[in-house]
Structure formats: structure tokens, C-alpha cells
Amino acid sequence: MAKIIFNKNLTLIRIQSGLGSCDPVEQDRKTVRASVNPPSMTLSMQAAYIGQQIDLIAVIRRSDYANGWNYAEYDGVQYHIEKGSAAAKEMFITLILRRS
């Protein structure tokens, strides 16, 4: 396995719709160190084939992630967290990000 270098800042954001309101409300924000890269051409093509879009892949430490984070901000651009995945014994979580 290649060495993962956490050299970028990624801000995780929890946004929820307010009760009785259509306006989203930011609940929480947390900046973590991450390895952020564009997806490979193969992954981009596979995603496009099934109608999905992947703009970035971010790898963060499992201890930095909890359920409920639904957006991420990187270089001033906000992304929706499409999926977070990790095997049971892995120390890292891979996030699939789509530009919001």
C-alpha cells in the first residue's frame, strides 16, 4: 500500500435544514488534515457510466470523522460528501466529494 501523506487542510461541515425553514443552518465545522486528490480517469469514467460525479477523493483519519458531516470545504470551494467508506480494521476513511 502506498504511503498516505496528510498535507492538506479539509474543513468538515455539518449543515441541517432548520425546523419549519427551508434555509440550511450550519451546525458545526471542523478542520482536519487530509490527503486530497482528483479521482483517477478509470474511477471518473465508472462514476459517469452510472450517472455519478466525483470531483475529489479525500482520505482522512478515522478518528477525525463521525457520522453527520455532510459537506466539506477545500481551497474555498464547498463539496457535498457523497460517500464515506472504510474497511473495519482500516485507520482511514475515504470520502467521495462532489462540488455543491
Describe this structure in words.
With 100 residues, this protein is mostly beta strands. The chain is built from one helix and six strands, in the order E-E-H-E-E-E-E. Helix content is 9%, strand content 51%. Strand 1 and strand 2 (24-37) form a beta hairpin. It is globular, with a radius of gyration of 14 Å. The mean pLDDT is 87.
What's the short version?
The chain is mostly beta strands and 100 residues long.
Oligomer: single chain
The whole-number mean of residue pLDDT values reads: 87
Which residues form runs of ≥5 with pLDDT under 50?
none
Major β-sheet annotation = 6 strands, antiparallel, barrel
Number of alpha- plus pi-helical segments: 1
- Helix-residue proportion: under 10%
Q: Span from first to last CA?
A: 31 Å
- Class by SSE composition: mainly beta
DSSP strand content: over 45%
General shape? globular
What is the β-strand count? 6
> What's the order of the H and E elements?
EEHEEEE
**How are the strands of the biggest sheet laid out side by side?**
1-2-3-6-5-4
Mind telling me the C-alpha Rg?
14 Å
